[in-house]
Every structure is written in structure tokens, then in C-alpha cells.
């Protein structure tokens, strides 16, 4: 029998509401209840029903993995399954992802999990990482580590200071929004890998608009790829595994880059 704790759920709900910077009144409006009811829940005077727990979690955009934790804290069984990606039941999802990756060629694209570990990749990404030290490509492959490690792509990144800030800041923001011990350790590791990275972005820093400028070789006269990225996730997934997948695609920022990527994949 699953038993919940008023205080346990109350503390967890309050923590998520504070993290999202949402008032009790706003949360009540989003969840279709009253501020009084939310106040009673957070004070431990009332333990909500299963549907209310889900509505509150959804209103706070709590990840589905953590929604299961909230349900357990309230005394209910988890509502969201966590299925291995190689399970036959997820065959259609795998097929769809494989088609998306193939359709993105000759441009690089990867599917990663919530910690940035590589789940799937296309030939464009493998061509981009052909100079990466083999140990960094042993599963589980951390894509952020491959990008910023001295034995990864870092030596080829022309704008490493900017790009490092872009990557580390994005991961740090994710750990603040959705706490994850493993991701926090990765952020600390990457910060140590690039100790000369400016602690604050340069005056001309453009945030998510920072392009990846990547030399095509190790010589000074090699060409340069200019890439921009897109990040896509499943917006309606109710399976923990699928909900945590992210599709990151690298797009050419100019014609020369498009032509070079085509040559890299074809040869």
C-alpha cells in the first residue's frame, strides 16, 4: 500500500512553486481551484486527490519524472510509465526519430536524454566528430562533453569562449529549473574544462543566437563551418523516457557551410 505525507507533498509543491516563481493565486487559477485550497495544501492542512496533484504539477510545468515523485509523496501510484527506448512498444517512436535524423542529412543531428547523453545520431554528426578522441565516444557519450573537452571538438571551435558560455549557461539554467544532480556535476566538470572562459558574457553576447564556428581541420588555413542549432522536444509525451528526449539539429548558417557538410557526409 502506498502512503503519502501531507508535509512531504506540501514541501515539494511549495518548492516547485517557488522555483517557478508562481504565486498561490496564479497557481490556483492555472489549476482550476482556489487560492484557499492551494494554501491549505501547502500548509499540510489538506492532501489533494490524484487528479489535483496532476493538475498542479502540470500547471507548474513539472517534468513527468518529477510528477511521479509528487504523486508518490501524496500517496498515489506513479501515473507516467518509464519505458526503455528499445522496448517493442516504442518502435514507432524510434522509427520516427530515425527518419527525422536521416531527413536532416547532410546536416548533423542528435537525440539526447535529459543529461545530454547521446541516444541517436546521424551520419552528419559522426562526420563532424571524426577527430574526437575515441574514449569520449564510448557510451554513454556526453554530447556537451564532446563539444567542450580538450580532446573533443574544443580545439576546433573558433569562438570557444562564447560557445562554452552558451553551453554551460544553458545547462546551468536547466539545473535551476529542473534540479538534476548528474547534470549539476556535468556543469561543474565543463566549467573546469574551460577555466579561461569569461565568467560573464562579452558585451556583444547574443545568447541563444551564438553560432558554432568550427574549423574543418587542425591547420590554420582550414575552412570554417558556421552552424546554428535548434532544440526540439516532445510536447505531449506521457512516457518519462520519451518526454526527456531532445532533438538537437545543427543547421548551416551560410552556403559555404552547407556545401562543406554535404561533402563531409558523401565522401
Automatic annotation (TrEMBL):
PANTHER family according to UniProt: BLL4672 PROTEIN-RELATED, BLL5781 PROTEIN
Source organism per UniProt: Amycolatopsis bartoniae
Residue span, HTH cro/C1-type domain: 13-67
Protein name: XRE family transcriptional regulator
One Pfam family this sequence matches: MLTR_LBD
GO molecular function: DNA binding
Domain of life: Bacteria
Signal peptide: none
Amino acid at each position: 500500500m502506498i502512503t503519502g505525507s501531507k508535509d512531504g507533498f506540501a514541501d515539494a509543491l511549495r518548492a516547485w512553486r517557488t522555483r517557478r516563481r508562481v504565486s498561490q493565486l496564479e497557481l490556483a487559477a492555472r489549476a482550476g481551484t482556489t487560492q484557499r485550497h492551494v494554501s491549505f495544501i501547502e500548509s499540510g492542512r489538506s492532501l489533494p486527490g490524484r487528479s489535483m496533484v496532476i493538475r498542479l504539477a502540470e500547471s507548474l510545468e513539472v517534468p513527468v519524472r518529477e510528477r511521479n515523485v509528487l504523486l508518490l509523496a501524496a500517496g498515489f501510484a506513479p501515473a507516467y510509465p518509464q519505458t526503455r527506448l528499445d522496448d517493442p512498444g516504442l518502435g514507432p517512436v524510434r522509427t520516427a526519430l530515425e527518419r527525422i535524423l536521416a531527413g536532416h542529412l547532410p546536416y548533423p543531428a542528435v537525440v539526447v536524454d535529459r543529461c545530454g547523453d547521446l541516444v541517436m545520431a546521424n551520419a552528419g554528426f559522426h562526420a563532424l566528430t571524426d577527430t574526437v578522441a575515441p574514449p569520449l565516444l564510448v557510451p554513454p557519450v556526453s554530447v556537451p562533453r564532446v563539444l567542450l573537452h580538450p580532446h573533443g571538438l574544443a580545439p576546433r571551435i573558433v569562438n570557444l569562449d562564447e560557445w562554452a558560455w552558451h553551453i554551460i549557461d544553458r545547462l546551468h539554467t536547466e539545473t535551476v529549473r529542473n534540479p538534476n544532480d548528474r547534470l549539476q556535476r556535468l556543469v561543474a566538470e565543463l566549467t573546469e574544462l574551460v577555466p579561461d572562459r569569461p565568467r560573464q558574457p562579452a558585451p556583444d553576447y547574443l545568447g541563444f543566437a551564438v553560432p558554432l564556428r568550427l574549423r574543418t581541420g587542425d591547420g590554420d588555413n582550414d575552412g570554417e563551418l558556421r552552424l546554428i542549432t535548434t532544440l526540439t522536444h516532445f510536447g505531449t509525451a506521457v512516457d518519462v523516457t520519451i518526454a526527456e528526449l531532445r532533438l538537437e539539429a545543427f543547421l548551416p548558417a551560410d552556403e559555404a557551410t552547407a556545401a562543406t557538410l554535404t561533402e563531409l557526409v558523401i565522401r
